[in-house]
Backbone:
């Protein structure tokens, strides 16, 4: 079973903190892969907040092609965090090339576009580059978005962390999602590694999504750029979060109402019963059947955790509001390793109706129950 | 019987009949029950004369001839009275002295079935014992990484939606603007398909209604039953139980006068309105209630004279095309109940199903599409229609579901699949397979008669006399002397029994697949079949 660990902090921290936590939870994953999502970046990227960052793995030819591609469209690289490992890769990890995060100053035409168009264009660019890379094998692109870096690699998280020197200051971030992968139903494919990302929203999951095919077909039929690929049965969770928040304008506390709606009895006395019952019907295709624990991060830096209805996957949230650091973990030992001196009585293990949310200010864990009145929808 | 029988082109010997009566003279008590119960008079009491020649030993005494007479059972060989294999004779025989036996090599009768230039009509089944649905396996079973759910303990939500569901975007918009929303019913995914009052005997119909009411009110299973075209008894129309009923309207409009007159006095809305364009077993053909079954009661409810055959035309001027239906029928039916009742058409699975569906997707009032496959049973149809016409349900349904996926409307228009579900008793497995191929719900007719009332029909052309009012079990007869055999209470009990066991079996399929909180509509990755061509056609996995 994959292990999940997420950190959200007021000050940028090293991703190795999350990797260490994954290492403590090693019993639960086989070290067949690791994925990292970093946002709220510190270091040199902090200065370049509005500039989209392209992150991925490139061969020399691939990198050249990326520069050409971006230059053709008038986008200029502002800053690059490149890492080309010289050492022998850990067992099971192929030697690939350059792990790069390139911050771009986008063209004047792009900047003249309305926000929604800009976002769509960024997604399209990422998909175009990914398609080109899949053909040539020279380019792998995981994200192209402001203030976001994604790193994915096959192998043991700790070994990969050391191999890729993830402790570098340029990778320090306020919001980190990290997953230690347990290879299960599918062949190892880097694009299948968690976390997944679309337009500022990233989620990761453990378990299996048995409703994958109907959900995938439904999302693909929505005509949203970026709802494609689907190398993992859990990738749909990210897109559901995107669909619910960006396309339907729902608050993230409603995410659970979409993926695991309440049954009739639970809904009976709810003040928003009519809305919720209609939402359940119209989003019926997005109901998941787990078992899953979903941890995700939103564009504003809020982090959340929710489970399947049966709660067959555990999860725990805890942290230190004074220091402004909170962690979401699939195992309590991971949380203990990352934030040992927290007030453990305040740890929260969300149950089947709960969503745990920590805002970007990292002051408290907001515990939303599906039985609560709905928060204001955006 | 004549000593010298005429031998004409249509003369048959007993050997030529597919069902032959085996009668044992030694155990027969000659009570006569078998001959009186035989629905087609295939057997009759016979007086047999036997000549016995006694040849004494020696040369002097001459042989003597003795004649004896005995009584027994004679099987008639006239094609009009051929045994149908229903085995009612055996059911009433105190000693099991008599029973029909199937002779598969006797095929001659089929050349003699059509008499006086009349094609054979029959009730019942498509005489093909194959079932594609039975070959489909459920292969995506959660094992190690993902614990299978416990079918007995976990909560399951085995409900589905009948009605036009808005897209999430429109739903939220409509909620904020307080706009009109199409009506949607949350029902059990196994629906009792249209079998009309008239086609079924009053006892059978009453039994089904009682079973459905019990399931709803005592078992918390929102089961729905379609009336078929024959209308609905006035008392039911004005009762609260009408909410468990889907009213059907078809090209004959039988019974609609009664329904329309009842609208102002209805306490509840019906569950839905089904507009029937076709039946899977006889696509492109209309309904047919033969004169045998049109007694006073049926004539009164349908608003027709007694004792005349009631063929529904295959089309009617008000609904001669789906465009007409979309534009007029669906809207006017919706209007009749103040747009509070879902209205959907039912068509035979055919090459035009997709066209119909595409049309419905564009109609905001269309509440779904029922597709009936070729294996569907029907009360009366021509032999050629039942055996040779129609489209299998699986591929037709799949095509329609995939078309909905392309249009992004797969949650918006529910597909109701029927035809051949539970043909060999595997009701839950067949229903689950169709749901995973894309059906929102399935409808059954034959299975209800077989399981709920002990119908004797089979895919080997057994019985199949539903059309002429002599149903030996009283399921489809309108003759009180026959339908008194059927106890409505017992039918209701059986309906409840098989619904509950269906529910358990469905959980036993869904739980290992890891699905419990919503119906696995379109979960095609769970399905596999050992036939490559079928796997490719249905876009499911090929497994051997």
Residues:
């Amino acid at each position: 079973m994959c292990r999940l660990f997420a950190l959200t902090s007021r000050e940028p921290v090293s991703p190795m903190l999350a990797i260490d936590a994954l290492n403590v939870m090693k019993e639960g994953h086989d070290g067949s892969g690791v994925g990292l999502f970093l946002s709220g970046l510190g270091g040199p990227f902090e200065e370049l907040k509005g500039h989209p960052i392209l992150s991925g793995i490139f061969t020399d030819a691939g990198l050249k092609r990326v520069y050409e591609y971006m230059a053709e469209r008038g986008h200029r690289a502002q800053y690059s965090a490149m890492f080309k490992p010289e050492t022998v890769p850990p067992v099971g990890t192929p030697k690939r090339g350059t792990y790069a995060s390139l911050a771009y100053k986008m063209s004047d035409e792009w900047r003249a576009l309305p926000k929604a168009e800009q976002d769509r264009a960024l997604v399209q660019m990422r998909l175009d580059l990914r398609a080109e890379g899949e053909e040539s094998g020279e380019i792998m692109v995981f994200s192209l978005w402001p203030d976001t870096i994604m790193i994915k690699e096959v192998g043991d998280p700790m070994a990969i962390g050391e191999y890729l020197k993830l402790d570098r200051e340029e990778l320090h971030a306020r919001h980190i999602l990290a997953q230690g992968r347990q290879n299960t139903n599918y062949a190892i494919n880097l694009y299948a590694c968690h976390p997944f990302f679309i337009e500022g929203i990233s989620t990761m999951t453990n378990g299996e999504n048995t409703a994958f095919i109907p959900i995938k077909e439904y999302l693909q039929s929505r005509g949203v750029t970026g709802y494609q690929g689907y190398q993992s049965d859990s990738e749909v969770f990210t897109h559901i979060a995107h669909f619910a928040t960006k396309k339907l304008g729902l608050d993230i506390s409603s995410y659970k109402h979409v993926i695991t709606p309440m049954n009739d009895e639970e809904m009976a006395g709810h003040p928003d019963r009519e809305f919720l019952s209609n939402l359940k019907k119209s989003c019926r295709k997005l109901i998941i059947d787990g078992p899953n624990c979903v941890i995700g991060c939103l564009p504003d830096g809020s982090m959340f955790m929710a489970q399947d209805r049966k709660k067959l996957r555990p999860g725990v949230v805890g942290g230190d509001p004074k220091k402004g650091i909170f962690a979401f973990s699939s195992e309590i030992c991971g949380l203990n390793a990352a934030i040992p001196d927290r007030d453990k009585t305040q740890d929260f293990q969300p149950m089947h109706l709960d969503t745990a949310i920590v805002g970007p200010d990292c002051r408290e864990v907001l515990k939303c129950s599906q039985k609560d009145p709905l928060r204001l929808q955006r | 019987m004549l000593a010298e029988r005429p031998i004409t082109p249509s003369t048959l010997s007993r050997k030529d009949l597919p069902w032959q009566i085996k009668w044992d003279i030694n155990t027969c008590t000659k009570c006569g029950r078998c001959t009186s119960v035989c629905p087609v008079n295939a057997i009759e009491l016979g007086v047999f004369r036997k000549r016995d020649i006694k040849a004494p030993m020696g040369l002097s005494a001459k042989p003597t001839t003795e004649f004896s007479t005995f009584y027994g059972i004679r099987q008639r060989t006239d094609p009009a009275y051929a045994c149908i294999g229903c085995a009612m004779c055996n059911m009433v025989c105190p000693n099991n002295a008599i029973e029909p036996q199937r002779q598969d090599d006797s095929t001659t009768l089929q050349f003699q079935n059509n008499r006086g230039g009349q094609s054979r009509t029959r009730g019942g089944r498509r005489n093909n014992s194959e079932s594609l649905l039975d070959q489909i396996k459920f292969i995506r079973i959660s094992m190690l990484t993902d614990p299978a759910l416990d079918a007995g303990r976990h909560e399951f939500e085995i409900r589905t939606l009948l009605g036009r569901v808005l897209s999430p975007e429109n739903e939220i918009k409509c909620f904020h603007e307080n706009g009109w929303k199409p009506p949607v019913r949350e029902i059990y995914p196994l629906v009792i398909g249209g079998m009309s009052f008239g086609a079924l005997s009053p006892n059978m119909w009453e039994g089904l209604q009682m079973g459905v009411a019990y399931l709803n009110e005592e078992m918390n299973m929102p089961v729905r039953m379609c009336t078929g075209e024959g209308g609905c008894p006035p008392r039911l129309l004005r009762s609260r139980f009408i909410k468990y009923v889907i009213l059907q309207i078809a090209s004959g409009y039988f019974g609609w006068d009664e329904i329309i007159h009842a609208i102002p006095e209805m306490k509840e809305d019906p569950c839905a309105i089904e507009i029937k364009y076709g039946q899977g077993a006889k696509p492109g053909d209309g309904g047919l209630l033969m004169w045998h079954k049109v007694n006073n009661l049926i004539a009164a409810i349908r608003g027709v004279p007694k004792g005349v055959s009631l063929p529904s035309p295959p089309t009617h001027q008000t609904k001669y095309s789906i465009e007409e239906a979309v534009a007029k029928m669906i809207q006017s039916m919706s209007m009749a109940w103040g747009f509070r009742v879902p209205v959907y058409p039912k068509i035979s699975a055919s090459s035009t199903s997709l066209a119909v569906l595409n049309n419905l997707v564009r109609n905001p009032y269309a509440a779904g599409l029922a597709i009936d496959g070729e294996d569907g049973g029907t009360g009366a149809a021509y032999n050629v229609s039942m055996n040779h016409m129609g489209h299998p349900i699986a591929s037709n349904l799949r095509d329609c579901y995939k078309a909905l996926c392309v249009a992004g409307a797969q949650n918006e228009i529910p597909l109701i699949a029927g035809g051949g579900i539970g043909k060999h008793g595997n009701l839950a497995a067949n229903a689950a397979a169709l749901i995973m191929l894309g059906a929102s719900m399935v409808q059954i007719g034959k299975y209800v008669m077989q399981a709920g009332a002990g119908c004797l029909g089979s895919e080997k052309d057994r019985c199949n006399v539903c059309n002429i009012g002599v149903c030996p079990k009283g399921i489809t007869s309108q003759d009180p002397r026959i339908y008194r055999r059927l106890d409505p209470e017992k039918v209701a009990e059986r309906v409840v029994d098989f619904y509950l066991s269906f529910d358990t079996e469905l959980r036993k399929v869904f739980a290992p697949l890891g699905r419990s909180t919503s119906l696995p509509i379109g979960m095609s990755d769970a399905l596999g079949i050992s036939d490559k061509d079928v796997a490719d056609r249905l876009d499911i996995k090929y497994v051997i």
About this structure: The first strand of chain B starts at residue 19 and ends at 23. The mean pLDDT of chain B is 92. Chain B touches chain A through 40 residues (CB under 8 Å).
